[in-house]
Amino acid sequence: MKLEQIYTGCLAHAAYYLESKGEAAIFDPLREVGPYIERAKKDNAKVKYVFETHFHADFVSGHLDLRKKTGAQIVFGPTAKPGYDALIAEDGQVFEVGDYKVKVIHTPGHTMESTTYLVIDEHGKEHGIITGDTLFIGDVGRPDLAQHVVADLTEEKLAGHLFDSLRNKIMPLSDDLIVYPNHGAGSACGKMMSKETTDTLGNQKKTNYALRADMTKAEFIKELLTGLTAPPSYFPQNVLMNIKGYDSLDTVLDRGKIPLSPEAFEAAANETGALLLDTRNAADFAKGFIPNSVNIGLDGSFAQWVGEMIPDVKQQILLITYPDKQEEAMTRLSRVGYDHTIGYLEGGFENWKKSGSDYEIVGRLSATEFESIYKASKPLVFDVRKKSEYDSEHIIGAINVPLNEINEHLSQFPKEKFFVLHCAGGYRSMIAASILKQRGWEDVVDVEGGFEEMKNTSIEKSDYVCPTTML
Q1: Most CB atoms closer than 10 Å: which of 159, 392, 410, 458?
Q2: Could you report the per-residue pLDDT of 104-136, keeping only the tens digit for each?
Q3: Is the pTM of this model over 0.90?
Q4: Three-state SS sequence of the chain
């Protein structure tokens, strides 16, 4: 069977391409649809359907652009109410893609319209299930997102629906079916997803905590809701874009691909109040950056951290990138709904320096330099990793302020006292440093290489603590 997973690691996202006899279907596409169209061209196939498992929260789907460019029919599961033309399928409805069949299985719980698609080969054999956010490898979809859009859909109600969907619709299916989920490890749509991106349903019945045969509904709801962290603020905004519609990516790119000289860039920043977003790596940003710019590097989980740190998807943005990286940055911004780039610095930061314009730097310490300072003076240390990372192991005396919560805890950072920031590897701590610099903090440095490098110093034996071993 020609069913391919197209995985995008920086978003932990999986789309799927199905093709038979010159007809193709795409499941849960990303915003930039060119790769799917090119894939179909290689097979001399026409994209017949775009199947959506649900209204996604963590990215803006490319279904509307695919329909516009290919004429494909958009298909949602039962109860979906999009603000544009789409086919709302019935539970059990079957679609034909060449010699293959795609059967709709309504599986509410993650959201009310959530749907699993059962893929059947040319011989009538059930091959696999494309589960969206209903069933992951090692986990199931969090049931608390829809309540941020529809208030009376409480997480308890949705968790109950999910329990019923799993028991009545998914678990009775054959053990040899392959599970094709929408996400893998790193997505905020679940708690404990595996790094594996496919598995058999039979193995999931044995290993996935949410599929235990002896689990009661009450136990399921309690386990599913325990330990859920607040979803990123951009999630409800992405849901609404996927429901209501959005500008074509071509329009977004045309609007943002405006090269600006240093003088024009500065004028635009002063006139518009746009966010200055520097997408270079942390090391280069530290050596020099435009005042008031925020660093979120393209070489990390760029889109997810943009979504975490920039509250409004309608925020106007001015980009500072490496040469020829501006379109990539705009495309990756658009994946999570940030469609309002209004220009970029032509020639990048080096052109800014050549113009004689002012710039700032961020101090950085190597792990060994930090070790010397730490032993000599015990400076104030802020750990911006997740609470779970901090709880696993951290420096004695370090204060944990997770990066995604930094804007709510600015008062904890002293303006009159030197302090050190660190994360696991230096990516998140530079985001934090840039935000603090933007807000007026001066006497701050970060640790290059972060906690992973610091563990290789002598501090590891005497000054680290793993709470789980302290009995």
Answers
A1: 159
A2: 999 999 999 999 999 999 999 999 999 999 999
A3: yes
A4: CCEEEEEEHHHCEEEEEEEECCEEEEECCCCCCHHHHHHHHHCCCEEEEEECCCCCCCCCCCHHHHHHHHCCEEEECCCCCCCCCCEECCCCCEEEECCEEEEEEECCCCCCCCEEEEEECCCCCEEEEEEECCECCCCECCCCCHHHCCCCCCHHHHHHHHHHHHHHHHCCCCCCCEEEECECCCCCCCCCCCCCCCEEHHHHHHHCHHHCCCCCHHHHHHHHHCCCCCCCCHHHHHHHHHHHCCCCHHHHHHHHCCEECHHHHHHHHHHHCCEEEECCCHHHHHHCECCCEEECCCCCCHHHHHHHHCCCCCCCEEEECCCCCHHHHHHHHHCCCCCCEEEEECCHHHHHHHCCCCCECCEEECHHHHHHHHHHHCCEEEECCCHHHHHHCEECCCEECCHHHHHHCHHHCCCCCCEEEECCCCHHHHHHHHHHHHCCCCCEEEECCHHHHHCCCCHHHHHEECHHHCC
